[in-house]
């Protein structure tokens, strides 16, 4: 039996009839066509599917869409300004080359933005601990850590 | 994932009524274990009763000597709560060590306890502090709550509403974690409650358990060397690709010692 799921995604109200077993990440990618949110491991380990729900970084593969009912969801498509100006965290990833193949990047950026809100001037150790739930299979962590450290400072302004 | 019917009740009573009707239904808290288990078809409930819309189940209250935490309170909220950090710093620390940031933003206290994963962190705090698990039907003492591997005293249709943790004189939690999953290979929660010492071990056996010999020794002298010579038997402990039962038994002593050291800091 289909259920109606409704939420705000990147500032826009969206609503659809879905099967209850539809994962949030499936809803975002296949129903809304927002394919910036990636599915890596599909088992809650890699963090490529990280998005914000009510401002908090969560793994969209690890919940059904209905768990985000009435929530405010932001995906990687929603963080840059409408004129295309990158979010300070995205700009820091670009500046510090915080990516190699780029597959993990959307999840890294989304987790980093949430982390930086409570850590305006993080230590390297804090950044590395904050990345527990994000895997980079290129092992490009060094520059990712540099990017997040710089991005957090830029966000704090 | 197999198909299921989805319900989103707005009160505990409605959730309990739904749960009573659905023999093959399951309650959904944060879903950080259940959704993944369903994807692997390790669980195939006929119905999911989502507790996410029930406001009464969320929140932290510190009252005199105890900390009450709503069942749907996220790990990150407990870890970041100034009140919990002040009243029971070991509990806030334990919550900060569960899974990863994203999991802590979704996972809940009630979900963790109801699931009773043998390697979960929260059971160690609940048993170590002698907490009380409050449900829609009754109050369950920690010593009566955990029954075995993924098994608790909860009856069908019974819903955890909150957990009340008495503030100890001093306490600490130390875990030897799996570096990939951050689950406890062995985690030890030590609490000097003022009325005695409690030592609870998670990750080592099928279910969280207390170590009476250590509690007695620490009751006489609360110091790391009091437990350094106390060994637990490997019989019945978990063996998997991460650690043998013998290794886990060894780690119980080492983690207990470190937990006492941390509690004294």
Summarize it.
By secondary structure, chain A is of the alpha+beta class. Chain A has five helices and five strands; from the N terminus they run ββαβββαααα.
3D structure, described in words:
Chain A is an alpha+beta fold. Chain A has two domains: 3-78, Ubiquitin-like (UB roll) (Roll); 88-156, DNA polymerase, domain 1 (Orthogonal Bundle), CATH 1.10.150.120. Chain A has helices at residues 24-31, 88-95, 105-118, 124-130, 141-156, and strands at residues 3-9, 12-18, 50-53, 56-59, 72-74. In chain A, strands 2-1-5-3-4 form a five-stranded mixed beta sheet, with helices on both faces. In chain A, strand 3 and strand 4 (56-59) form a beta hairpin. Chain A starts with a strand and ends with a helix. Chain B is of the alpha+beta class and 265 residues long. Among the domains of chain B are: 1-51, Uridine Diphospho-n-acetylenolpyruvylglucosamine Reductase, domain 2, CATH 3.30.43; 170-264, Enolase-like, domain 1. In chain B, 35% of the residues lie in helices and 24% in strands. In chain B, the strands form four sheets. Chain B has a five-stranded antiparallel beta sheet with strand order 4-5-10-6-7. The radius of gyration of chain B is 18 Å and the shape is globular. The relative contact order of chain B is 0.12. The mean pLDDT of chain B is 97. At the A-B interface, strand 4 and helix 3 of A face helix 2 and helix 6 of B.
Notable characteristics:
heterodimer; A: 157 residues; alpha+beta; Ubiquitin-like (UB roll); DNA polymerase, domain 1; 2 domains; five-stranded mixed β-sheet; globular; B: 265 residues; Uridine Diphospho-n-acetylenolpyruvylglucosamine Reductase, domain 2; five-stranded antiparallel β-sheet; 35% helix
């Amino acid at each position: 039996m289909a259920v109606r799921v409704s939420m705000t995604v990147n500032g826009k109200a969206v609503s659809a009839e879905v099967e209850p077993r539809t994962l949030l990440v499936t809803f975002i990618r296949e129903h809304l066509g927002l394919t910036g949110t990636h599915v890596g491991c599909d088992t809650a380990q890699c963090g490529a599917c990280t998005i914000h729900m009510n401002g908090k970084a969560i793994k969209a593969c690890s919940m059904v869409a209905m768990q985000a009912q009435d929530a405010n969801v932001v995906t990687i498509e929603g963080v840059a300004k409408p004129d295309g100006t990158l979010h300070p965290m995205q700009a820091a990833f670009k500046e510090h080359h915080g990516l190699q193949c780029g597959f993990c990047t959307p999840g890294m950026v989304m987790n980093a933005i949430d982390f930086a809100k409570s850590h305006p001037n993080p230590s390297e150790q804090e950044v590395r601990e904050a990345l527990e739930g994000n895997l980079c299979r290129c092992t490009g962590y060094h520059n990712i850590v540099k990017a997040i450290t710089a991005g957090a400072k830029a966000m704090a302004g | 994932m197999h198909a299921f019917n989805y319900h989103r009740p707005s009160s505990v009573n409605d959730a309990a009524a739904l749960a009573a009707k659905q023999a093959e239904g399951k309650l959904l808290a944060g879903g950080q274990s259940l959704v993944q288990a369903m994807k692997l078809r390790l669980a195939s409930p006929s119905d999911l009763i989502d507790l996410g819309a029930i406001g009464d189940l969320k929140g932290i209250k510190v009252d005199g000597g105890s900390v009450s935490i709503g069942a749907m309170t996220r790990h990150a909220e407990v870890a970041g709560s100034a009140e919990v950090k002040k009243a029971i710093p070991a509990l806030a620390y334990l919550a900060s060590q569960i899974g990863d940031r994203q999991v802590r933003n979704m996972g809940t206290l009630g979900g963790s306890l109801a699931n009773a994963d043998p390697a979960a962190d929260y059971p160690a705090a609940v048993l170590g502090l002698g907490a009380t698990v409050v449900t829609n039907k009754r109050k369950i003492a920690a010593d009566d709550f955990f029954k075995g591997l993924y098994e608790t005293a909860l009856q069908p249709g019974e819903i955890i509403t909150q957990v009340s943790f008495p503030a100890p004189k001093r306490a600490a939690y130390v875990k030897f974690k799996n570096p990939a999953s951050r689950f406890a290979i062995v985690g030890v929660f030590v609490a000097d409650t003022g009325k005695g010492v409690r030592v609870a071990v998670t990750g080592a056996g099928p279910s969280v358990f207390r170590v009476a010999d250590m509690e007695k020794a620490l009751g006489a002298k609360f110091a790391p060397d009091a437990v350094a010579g106390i060994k637990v038997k490997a019989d019945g402990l978990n063996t998997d690709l991460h650690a043998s039962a013998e290794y886990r038994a060894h780690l119980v002593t080492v983690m207990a010692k470190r937990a006492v050291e941390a509690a004294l800091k």
